Amino acid sequence: MKMVERYIAAVQRELPKNKQDDIGRELKANILDKIEAMEAQQGSVTEAEITELLKEMGHPRSVALQFCPPTPLISAALMPLYLHTLYMVLGVLLVISTIAITSRWLDGAEMNLFWFLKGLASSFLNDAYFAFAAITIGFAVLSRKQKTDSTEAPGTGKWSPEKLPAAGKDWQHISLQNIFGDLATMLFLVMLIWYPIWQPDSGATSIFTLEAHSVLLWFTPVIGIAIVHSLWQLRTRLWNRNMLMLNIGISTAFFLVSLWLVVNTPILRIHTEALHASINVSYLELSIQIFVLVIAFIAAYEVIRDIRRLIRIS
């Protein structure tokens, strides 16, 4: 029986002090009941059989967790709001970092794609670390203040079934990642196109050729509509008929402009004196055209996808 006492003591050490005695007595009674049942079946119980019994019950730490599960850092009731807040803040930080780094990149200090990607990742991650820590600590404090018997999520006290959104397919839900990714991309395009114009004193020049830049200037209203469309998605978070029709129009415009740029004109200004001698200009231009062609194919796919979705809704 000393082995049983050692086992119970090991379990108690993993428990809060105010629960050690009660749980210890309950666990001891449970073990003794099992030993008595074994004795009733086979007459006597050896130390080896008691050892096997305790092994079947599990490690003392695992048993303690069964009796007294640890309090989560963030309560289950607050977890949906925590994740929504985290995604929203990280999305906003991604957009802000994109604008800030693009502005510095276009100023001409480091006109290097690798520098741009490195600066964007560094700026976003530095802000994201702080935001993640601050939001997590804030919700952890709220979880401690929340009533232990409360399972209601914040903001769910007053609701009505009549006001719930219409039932739809899984694809109708719009994720925050997609919304903020589109927002950051559209704002990046706007800055690429217009920065040399609204910041003429910065010395920045357009990275596009004259013909391509002229087309993109006329295309800017479509990008503006796409930005408003993303904000609309952020408000509703569900695809509906009108949103799908607008998205089809935007994707079609992107497909046509991308295809026109690939077919009719060089897209980017390539400064041959800044290139390494081993880099072939024609291959570089071909790579740029292929990249824009991929964008056109993605836009075409979205047009076909949204037309099919529109038919399903109809």
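(the above was protein one; protein two follows)
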Amino acid sequence: MKKLFISILILSVIACKKNTVNPTINTTDSTNQAKTDSIAAPKMTEAEKKDVIKKTNDEILQALKNKDYQKFSEFIHPQKGIRFSMYAFIDLKDDKHFSKADFEKYVQTQTQFTWGSQDGSGDLYKETIKNYLAKWVFSKDYTTSSYSFNEFQKGGNSLNNLQEIYPKHDFTENYIKGTEKYGEMDWKTLRFVYEEFQGKYYLIAVVNDQWTI
């Protein structure tokens, strides 16, 4: 009987040691897995970023040309939405701003919005989102324009405050030269301002520029 008791006691000690070892192994495995999961993806180089933004710029222009506004909405920043400025001077108070959800909602409707005041006449410019994009934003075929990254190719007498409003953001400019008929005063540019979110660059602002009176 005494031998049986000792045998049972030995088996119990061994069992306790096994139970003590296994959690330690599992904890170590979990810690290693957590470290692996926490490793960030390699940061994009400046050259890679320029290539990505150029491709994004061209895709946005093509969506506007095709009047594919559902595709255009895919480029709108998911959290910050998008701002539209009729001219080079960005007015945070009066420029029209939409969340991504509101843009997708109202682009399908005939709801008119006030986008700003027209230079010269001072008349309020009221249009649906579709008409504003087609008649004002993409008033010329910018797929044939001259492209630049973080650089202004042309400016008029309207104050350009893009870099003051978005000092740490990348932007692209699509410039169309004016015609001889109008002394090249009928030039136009279309600028896109971007912000990175979860590894992708999204639009946060669309800025038109042209000669103003």
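Reviewer note on protein two: The domain at 46-210 is CATH 3.10.450 (Nuclear Transport Factor 2; Chain: A,).
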